[in-house]
């Protein structure tokens, strides 16, 4: 089987349903701020955009890595049932496939057939720092996808499928299988697995505060002392939070 010896199987992760729900109702921008507070300022996968505006992506990462095209490697590892196809076949419900394509926008890294396979298996979505082919058809499948570009060229123009479920770098972020990936129209962030519950709780609390502040602003109050709440505003917010 071509490429079979390049595939490394990692530990499959699950995400608690309550934690998943909190993250689904939390903005990526809020999660990014909470990660920064904990010393992780560079967890946004840069350069990727939602191909299904309005969709939300939450799930544990599965990973796929491509190396740069080289004729001999492409001949040995880029044909048959290679790592890319295996990665899609191995997805399970709730997974997010994260693809390292070296930020190369000049070819597709998956298309409609593989996106459909991910959808049928119940995957939560796909993130690639490369391109997507068949973009209209992929959007029509309804699976949240985030890519750097749209491009008609096939994978083999620039890439060789290399390995799955190892630590990769996607859009400048180190991603390990089992990390939690969250995406919305602002972009995609990666939460290290050991921080997910802490970040989810803190981000949910921050969202409550932000909503309360927005209500006060809508009432005509000035930003000073209110965003974030300090002094009497902090006291008012604390009283509100205790009663809610």
Low-confidence stretches: 1-10
Largest sheet: 8 strands, mixed
Mean of pLDDT: 94
Q: How many helices?
A: 8
Q: How far apart are the first and last residues' alpha carbons, in Å? A: 59 Å
Tally of DSSP β-strands: 10
Q: Shape, please?
A: elongated
Our estimate of the beta-strand percent is 15-25%
Helix/strand order, N-terminal first: HHEEHHEHEHEEEEEEHH
Helical content band: 25-40%
What structural category arises from helix and sheet content?
A: alpha/beta
The gyration radius over C-alpha positions equals 20 Å
Task: Explain what you see.
Helices cover 34% and strands 23% of the residues. Helix 5 runs parallel beside helix 6. It has 244 residues and is α/β, with parallel strands linked by helices.
Keywords:
244 residues, alpha/beta, 8-stranded mixed sheet, two-stranded antiparallel ribbon, 10 strands, disordered N terminus
Briefly say what this structure is.
By secondary structure, the protein is α/β, with parallel strands linked by helices. The protein has helices spanning 17-24, 28-37, 71-77, 83-89, 112-120, 135-141, 196-218, 231-243, and strands spanning 49-50, 57-68, 96-100, 125-132, 145-150, 159-164, 168-170, 173-175, 180-184, 187-191. Helix 2 crosses helix 7.
